[in-house]
Structure formats: structure tokens, C-alpha cells
């Protein structure tokens, strides 16, 4: 259920019988030839498809994340780590105040990882609550499916090229050599753009849609199982 399609009275009624909810986290950043909102689109969509059969509400995706390294790419917007953690804290505090006690965070952006550490701190201060931090794209079953199809999978490559993140721009057909990830971490935003070029970290830009659908089905099922059975 989308919170955007509920009113407050429906949420109040829901909370009388269930205390679960989903909070997707995304980012607005370059993804090569794909949408700047890839991380937000995928985190929210996998959340909605996983939660719908269970009747669990999904809050709107937090569409801005931590992505300072992409600042030289127009359209990429970052929050400071301190700002981001403050926002996540406020969101969790607000959900707790409303009565939610089992919160599944579905994260779509690796740069948001500081929030995962923060969640442990927040739980320690709210021992009657449970918060799971789920990086949907590299969860065990989903990542295994990705690797089985093509082990060269990276940021802005084929593994993020779904029909719902794809634009009209035509990407190159050839496989891009994998970038030196250790080197990337040492570069300034301008240097990173010069080194990386179009934004793909390496690999093909697109694979057949049936393969992408197979990955997606695993991702949705894995997220749904967590929402259904992952609580202590």
C-alpha cells in the first residue's frame, strides 16, 4: 500500500492490527545513460511490489542521498552525511511516534551506508522496535542471480538497466572495461568524471529484458520474505 494513497484514518486503523512499514531510500545521481533517479525508482518499486500482497504501507522514497563523488555530473545532488543521518533519525522518530515498531528500510544506493550503522544506534535507544536495513540489489539471493547472469555488473551498467529506469538515449553496445574501484575512491569529483567518462563503472550497458525480469522477481521475493519473516 502506498502511503500516498491512504488517509490518516486508514493508517490509524491499520496500526491497530499491524506495526510494520517500509521506508525506501534512494539517491539523485548520475547513472550514465539511465535516469538520474535510478536508485530511488528501484528502491521504491521493489518495496511496493514486495509489500502489496502483505498489505504493508510503503512510505515515499527519500530521493536524496550521500553522493559527493558525483558532484561534477550535472543533476547529481548530495546531502552531507550529518544532514542525511539527521533526516533518517527524524523519519525513524516520526514513525516510532506514530506507532510503527517494525520498520524495513529498503536502500537503493550504496553511498547511504552510513545510515546502516546509525540504525544500530537508533535501535539501542528504542529496544521495543526492530529496524532492518536491506540493500536490495546486493542481498544474497538477488546478487547471486546477478552474478549468474553476468559477473561484470556495476554502477550504471546493465544491472541497473530495467525498462523503468531506461531513457530514450541509446547506450554503447560494447562492454566497458571495469574501472579501478580503489582508484575511484581517491579522486575528486572532477577527476572522477574525467576518469570514468559516461558514468558506467564497467560491463555491458544493457542485457535482454527477460534476464532483467528474472533478477527483479528474485529481488521482490527476497524483499517480501524479509518483510514477512525477517523479524525477531
From TrEMBL:
Its EC number is 3.5.2.10. The keyword Transmembrane helix does not apply. This is Creatinine amidohydrolase. Transmembrane segments: none annotated. Keywords: Hydrolase, Metal-binding, Zinc. One of its GO terms (biological process) is riboflavin biosynthetic process. It comes from Meiothermus granaticius NBRC 107808. Its cofactor is Zn(2+). PANTHER family: 2-AMINO-5-FORMYLAMINO-6-RIBOSYLAMINOPYRIMIDIN-4(3H)-ONE 5'-MONOPHOSPHATE DEFORMYLASE, 3-DEHYDRO-SCYLLO-INOSOSE HYDROLASE. Belongs to the creatininase superfamily. GO terms for molecular function: creatininase activity; hydrolase activity, acting on carbon-nitrogen (but not peptide) bonds, in linear amides; metal ion binding. Signal peptide: none annotated. The keyword Metal-binding applies. InterPro entries: Creatininase-like_sf (IPR024087), Creatininase/forma_Hydrolase (IPR003785).
Amino acid at each position: 500500500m502506498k502511503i500516498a494513497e491512504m488517509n490518516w484514518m486508514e493508517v490509524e486503523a491499520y496500526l491497530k492490527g499491524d506495526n510494520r512499514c517500509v521506508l525506501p531510500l534512494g539517491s539523485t545521481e548520475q547513472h550514465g545513460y539511465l535516469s538520474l533517479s535510478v536508485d530511488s525508482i528501484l528502491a521504491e518499486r521493489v518495496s511496493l511490489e514486495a509489500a502489496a500482497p502483505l498489505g504493508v504501507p510503503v512510505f515515499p522514497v527519500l530521493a536524496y542521498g550521500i553522493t559527493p563523488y558525483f558532484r561534477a555530473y550535472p543533476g547529481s545532488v548530495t546531502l552531507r552525511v550529518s544532514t542525511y543521518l539527521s533526516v533518517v533519525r527524524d523519519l525513524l522518530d516520526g514513525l516510532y511516534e506514530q506507532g510503527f515498531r517494525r520498520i524495513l528500510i529498503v536502500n537503493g544506493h550504496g553511498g547511504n551506508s552510513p545510515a546502516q550503522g546509525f540504525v544500530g544506534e537508533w535501535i539501542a535507544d528504542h529496544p521495543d522496535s526492530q529496524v532492518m536495513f536491506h540493500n536490495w540489489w546486493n542481498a544474497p539471493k538477488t546478487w547471486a542471480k546477478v552474478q549468474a547472469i553476468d559477473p561484470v555488473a556495476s554502477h550504471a551498467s546493465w544491472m541497473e538497466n530495467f525498462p523503468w529506469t531506461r531513457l530514450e538515449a541509446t547506450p554503447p553496445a560494447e562492454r566497458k572495461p571495469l574501472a579501478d574501484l580503489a582508484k575511484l575512491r581517491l579522486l575528486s569529483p572532477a577527476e572522477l568524471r574525467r576518469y570514468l567518462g559516461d558514468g558506467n563503472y564497467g560491463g555491458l550497458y544493457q542485457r535482454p529484458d527477460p534476464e532483467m525480469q528474472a533478477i527483479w522477481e528474485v529481488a521482490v521475493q527476497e524483499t517480501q520474505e524479509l518483510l514477512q519473516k525477517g523479524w525477531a
